[in-house]
Design a protein that fits this description.
By secondary structure, this protein is α/β, with parallel strands linked by helices. The protein folds into 3 domains: 133 residues, Gyrase A, domain 2; 122 residues, Up-down Bundle (Four Helix Bundle (Hemerythrin (Met), subunit A)); 154 residues, P-loop containing nucleotide triphosphate hydrolases (Rossmann fold). Helices cover 46% and strands 17% of the residues. The strands form 2 sheets. It has a 7-stranded mixed beta sheet. The longest helix has 30 residues. The structure holds guanosine-5'-triphosphate and magnesium ion (MG). Guanosine-5'-triphosphate binds next to α9. The site of magnesium ion has 6 residues, from α9.
């Protein structure tokens, strides 16, 4: 489907150019052009090794040569050039790619020459926006492009790739097609109300609406997992001093990141590291042991622990299994109650002095020997993902997608209410149309310009 409005069609008559590799030094830097003049602009600056111009390049072939200054003839850089013809390109427009040396100066100069010749610098995400407007991608796939670039775990990358292949879009379009079919049946009932034509019974209509609503709710529920895989979660290790919090951080990371000593009050600052737990990018924080103290530095550390505790998605409360529970332990246990938390009994390599029966569900570990760490990782993953294995079904991955799905679910709930109240087919059609529009906005087949612009503005330049 083509997603262009008239305004956008006008905006796409120009040729855009951008550096598509990260700025700064690199082995190579790639400048991309897209638009009607893409090939002409690149070929205007390009000369083959023998100094001749390249007249009719074969698409997808790389040509060796130089970018030369059009007036002085000076060589700006040694490059490889390739061209693509519409619609066989990322944007579905004519495109050219110039691979130059990855230095800021040659790349800036080539871009400058292209702009002087008539190209315009691309806005962030404009290549992908054009791909969307030409119908090569839908909005869920465009968002998946960004999620692919930013994925920080393998599970997150796989989820983004599923969406990029169009699995989410296909699912949503399938639901929308069922809504449209239902609407068509209703219209037929309205048009031929006087004749005795077999249309759907109200029981059949109710069943289909209920099924569509359940499927939409399922999509909404998938958003939590989609977000977790994409944005991750914050887990904060808390406990009184000396229970082995820093030792646990180090053990989970597999490196001596935080200082560990037998002195209570060793950690003074919040130490944060990234960890992949069951596919969720986890921001793991080690904090200062929480206790009343007169030491000014430690007191500030404890204040930071309190802030981290308040903001955490998951609390990892570490107790020392080799010592009886203290008043500080009990105070922290009380504070963890009712929050997503895992009780960890550490120092399992030493004789047990804690009454486990007092604790309820907990994980026994030894940060020193590594015993119990796999079970702890599993417990964290279970807590975050609600026991669900990283789903193989498409996941809603953005707030925008979630809001649209919620709107569809609301409209379907409204349709159910209309049906129960014995409302007319016309009224029911209004509700179902609203649901269909919301699903259309999700894939971008029927999305507003502002939504589209906001979405692409989050991309990097050159993508
Ligand atoms: N035997 C044994 N000792 C441990 C274990 N984990 C930590 N320790 C010891 O307990 C002491 C405190 O460890 P840390 O990791 O510094 O404890 P912490 O909770 O970070 O302490 P603060 O930063 O002071 O709050 C050190 O002497 C560690 O070697 C364990 O599993 N078994
Ligand atoms: Mg510590």
């Amino acid at each position: 489907m083509d997603h262009r409005t008239d305004r956008q069609t006008d905006a796409m008559t120009d040729t855009i150019a951008a550096l598509s590799t990260p700025p700064g030094e690199g082995g190579i830097g790639i400048i991309r052009l897209s638009g009607p003049e893409a090939a002409a602009l690149a070929l205007g600056l390009f000369r083959r090794a023998d100094g001749s111009a390249l007249a009719r390049p074969t698409p997808f072939r790389q040509y060796y040569g130089h970018i030369r200054h059009p007036e002085t003839g000076d060589v700006v850089d040694e490059v490889l050039l390739s061209v693509m013809r519409a619609p066989r390109s990322y944007t579905r427009e004519a495109m050219a790619e110039i691979s130059a040396h990855g230095g800021p100066l040659p790349l800036r100069e080539i871009l400058g020459l292209l702009c002087r010749a008539g190209a315009r610098l691309a806005r962030p995400g404009e290549f992908t926006e054009r791909a969307f407007l030409h119908g090569r991608l839908d909005l869920t796939q465009a968002e998946a492009v960004l999620d692919t670039i930013r994925a920080c775990t393998e599970a997150g990358l796989r989820a983004a790739q599923r969406a990029l292949r169009g699995e989410l879009a296909a699912r949503i379009r399938g639901l929308r097609a069922r809504l449209v079919a239902l609407l068509a049946a209703l219209e037929a009932a309205i048009d031929y109300a006087d004749e005795d034509i077999a249309v759907l019974s109200s029981a059949e209509i109710a069943a289909e609406i209920a099924a569509l609503r359940a499927a939409t709710e399922e999509l909404i529920a998938s958003h939590r997992q989609g977000c977790l895989l994409r944005d991750g979660a914050a887990a904060v290790i808390i406990g009184r001093p000396n229970t082995g919090k820093s030792s646990l951080l180090n053990a989970l990371l597999g490196e001596a990141r935080a200082i560990v000593t037998a002195v209570p009050g060793t950690t003074r600052d919040v130490i944060e590291e990234q960890l992949d737990v069951g596919g969720v990018p986890l921001r793991l924080m080690d904090t200062a042991g929480i206790r009343p103290t007169d030491d000014e530095v430690e007191r500030q550390g404890v204040a930071r622990s309190e802030t981290a505790l308040a903001d955490a998605d998951v609390l990892l409360l570490v107790l020392d299994g080799s010592a009886p529970l203290t008043a500080e332990d009990r105070a922290l246990l009380a504070r963890a109650r009712g929050r997503p938390a895992i009780l960890i009994v550490n120092k399992a390599d030493l004789p047990l002095a804690v009454a486990l029966s007092e604790l309820g569900a907990h994980v026994m570990i030894s940060a020193r020997t590594g015993a119990g760490l796999p079970a702890l990782r599993q417990a964290i993953a279970d807590l975050l993902l609600g026991g669900a294995v990283a789903a193989q079904s498409p996941l809603l991955a953005s707030l925008r997608q979630r809001a649209a799905a919620e709107e569809a679910a609301r409209a379907l709930a409204q349709a159910e209410a209309t049906l129960r109240a014995g409302g007319s087919e016309e009224l029911l059609a209004v509700d179902l149309t609203a649901a269909a529009d919301a699903l259309g906005a999700l894939t971008g087949d029927h999305a507003r310009d502002e939504v589209i612009q906001e979405l692409f503005s989050r991309f990097c330049v050159g993508k």
